[in-house]
Amino acid sequence: MNSNSSNLKIKRYDLSEDKSLKAFSAADELTLERFSELSSKDKPLVIYNDRFGYLTCHLADLKTSTVYTNKSQLSAITSNCKANGINFENYCDPLSPLAYKVDFALLKVPKSLALFELYLQHISENSTTKVQVVIGFMTRHFSPKMIEIAEKYFENVEQSRAVKKARTATLTGKKKIEKASLIDSLEFNNYNYQQYWGVFSAKHIDYATQYFLKHLQVDPKDQNILDLASGNGVIAKEISKKLPQSTFHLVDDSYLAVESAKLNMNGENVQHYFENNLSNFDKNSFNLIVSNPPFHFEHEINIQIPIHLFKECFRCLKPGGNLQIVANNQLNYSSQLKNIFPKVETVAQNENLVVIKCEK
Ligand SMILES: C[S@@+](CC[C@H](N)C(=O)[O-])C[C@H]1O[C@@H](n2cnc3c(N)ncnc32)[C@H](O)[C@@H]1O
Fold this sequence. Notes:
Helix content: 25-40%
Number of domains: 2
Strand order of the largest sheet: 3-2-1-4-5-7-6
CATH class of the largest domain: Alpha Beta
Oligomer: single chain
Largest sheet: 7 strands, mixed
Bound molecules: S-adenosylmethionine
Mean pLDDT: 96
Number of helices: 10
CATH superfamily of the largest domain: Vaccinia Virus protein VP39
Distance between the termini: 52 Å
Number of strands: 18
CATH architecture of the largest domain: 3-Layer(aba) Sandwich
Shape: globular
Structural class: alpha/beta
Low-confidence stretches: none
């Protein structure tokens, strides 16, 4: 445990200005506590889904690696380490092997159980037979499927009592498991989309995205196109069928989404970015920006993040260029977008969804 543990200050460092949102939960605290009960300090350890760096900062003094899935997560952990004077660099993406086999793994259970399973696959590949895994979760997020998945990989799954509405489970007795491909296929519009487990949206192309694609307005003059929050790349891919000569830029905060999009869309006119903002793009860069923007962040709903991204879109669009989005009606983005763009129109609307076009 970090010798300065009680003085660590963990912040969110995200694009949201909501100060009421916390950078860690009782599930993180309980996971750390459970680890302290079990651990032998010099054994190698890996941490998964440490959203803002609470666990990494507390355990950076040990032989610790952190597996990241999001750019926002990587930036927050790096910032928290720096702000707390911690020198930590052992980061690994979820598709690469760890530098060494671990005896311990700590895992905050993600909302996507497919991603949870991908993490268990990674642990299975990168651990000794004696590995002990502590998973942490808020009791309101518990689902029996979580235990079912854990039992595919481990003989013993022992749940703790609840403390401050959080619980842990300790997994021991690693089973021998076949290495899985980690990729699902989704058939849509005569194309077989590939995506890593846990990438939005599971099982089928999102219905909002399908509605968007029906109403999206593209023009042969749209030479430079940005798909913001691109997921598996479906929106850019479908546009490219109509505008094969255009250049496509695909940005997503999720490492697995970016790697999925690379499977679906590549070529000289395609560029992928593992990023959670547009700060690397110059102003006046794009003719068209398209997005099915995020507003769910694990179990939180936060529209400040998409609104921040819309402001960035305005900066990055060429004069005369446009942003088109699909969204849930209830989010009422139109009024927010009218504060950013001179011209905002509803292109299509049904009971649940709206497609909005904003011109610069
Ligand atoms: C609603 S999904 C849309 C995915 C894809 N475009 C589709 O239509 O299936 C939103 C995506 O936003 C990504 N995301 C979340 N925060 C982001 C951010 N700050 N910058 C870029 N992408 C982000 C998520 O990883 C997710 O892939």
